[in-house]
Design a protein that fits this description.
CATH architecture of the largest domain: 2-Layer Sandwich
Helix content: 25-40%
Distance between the termini: 31 Å
Number of domains: 2
Largest sheet: 7 strands, mixed
Number of strands: 11
Order of helices and strands: EEEHEHHHEEEHHHHHEEEE
Radius of gyration: 19 Å
Shape: globular
CATH topology of the largest domain: Ribosomal Protein S5, domain 2
Structural class: alpha+beta
Length: 315
């Protein structure tokens, strides 16, 4: 049976070096559902890839293993290599498949760290796809997805071969969807990140003593495919609790929702990055707030994607 999440990472027999564009994601919609006894939450979300990406290059070696990260982000926030998701993905893949030799991973970072855009998860997904493309006995996307699931809720989607998906559970259950029409996107990055665990803890505090948690949304084809309909129901359950701790988030969103060509403005994932989806007119989206509390925020222009680029053999 064909894996519905598979892409055509075709082709060259066992290359020694490959490159992958590790795209960022935004959560067009995010509901946080039941909290399980192990402390993890079930979610329901609409994932969509955008053009902003890290560049991940992986080479097979005779035995040594290395990870080199460069780029225009705060690299000090990455922590030790053994905690990096790209490294953990590679270790997991080699252990599960018995792939001999070693690897050299080079990540050129462009996706902000700790911003809710899935940068580390995208790197991990790229590494899984890269190693499988270099494996003489590949396990395919289905096998890579099994390895992706324990690494985090965003990793399965960012390992798969689709640009848009409805995901639920812990992010491992996915329904690939036809992407909505491409639109301009403005990403607005605050001068601080938000720890995912903190954001969920803040939500639990808000819900303490309540008898009901968030309810799943009933989707139909139009709500998943048409921006005008989607804009009417999209929400992010973490947005309000993050904005309570960081009031400038609410201030920035209010400013963005009043700017020209804005159709949807939300926080992505657990934050802190905000995103604006442009209107169908295709006019430019600009981040030009007045001086003051928003002065440390920066804007990044990109677009939504409708396809995922395959693994690119280099050598």
């Amino acid at each position: 049976m064909t894996d519905p999440l598979a892409s055509s990472d075709a082709a060259h027999p066992s290359p020694r070096i490959v490159e992958v564009a590790a795209n960022a994601k935004i959560n067009l919609h995010l509901r946080v559902l039941a909290r399980e006894s192990n402390g993890y939450h079930q979610i329901e979300t609409l994932f969509l890839r955008v053009g902003l990406s890290d560049v991940v290059r992986v080479a097979r070696t005779d035995g040594s293993r290395s990870l080199d990260v460069t780029g225009d982000v705060d690299l000090a926030a990455l922590g030790p290599a053994e905690r990096n998701l790209a490294w953990r993905a590679a270790e997991s893949y080699c252990a599960a498949t018995g792939l001999t030799g070693g690897f050299a991973i080079a990540v050129e970072k462009h996706i902000p760290i700790g911003g809710g855009l899935g940068g580390g998860s995208a790197d991990a997904g790229a590494v899984l796809r890269a190693l499988d493309a270099m494996n003489p006995s590949p396990i395919g996307l289905a096998g890579c997805l099994e390895l992706a699931t324990p690494l985090g809720a965003d990793v399965p989607f960012l390992t798969g071969g689709h640009a848009y998906a409805l995901a639920w559970g812990h992010g491992e259950r996915m329904l690939p969807l036809k992407p909505p029409p491409r639109r301009r996107v403005l990403l607005v990055v605050p001068p601080f990140g938000v720890n995912t665990g903190d954001a969920y803890a803040w939500l639990d505090e808000r819900h303490a003593g309540e008898s009901e948690s968030s309810q799943s949304h009933v989707f139909d084809d139009r709500s998943l495919q048409e921006w005008d309909v989607f804009a009417g129901f999209a929400t992010n359950d973490l947005e309000a609790v993050v904005a309570t701790r960081h009031p400038v988030i609410a201030e920035a969103l209010a400013y963005l929702r009043g700017t020209p060509n804005c159709q949807v403005a939300r926080m992505s994932g657990s934050g802190s990055t905000l995103f604006v989806i442009g209107t169908a007119s295709g006019g430019p989206l600009r981040w030009r707030p007045p001086d003051g509390t928003l002065a440390g925020f920066r804007g990044m222009a990109t677009r939504t994607l409708t396809r995922v680029e395959p693994v690119k053999p280099i050598e």
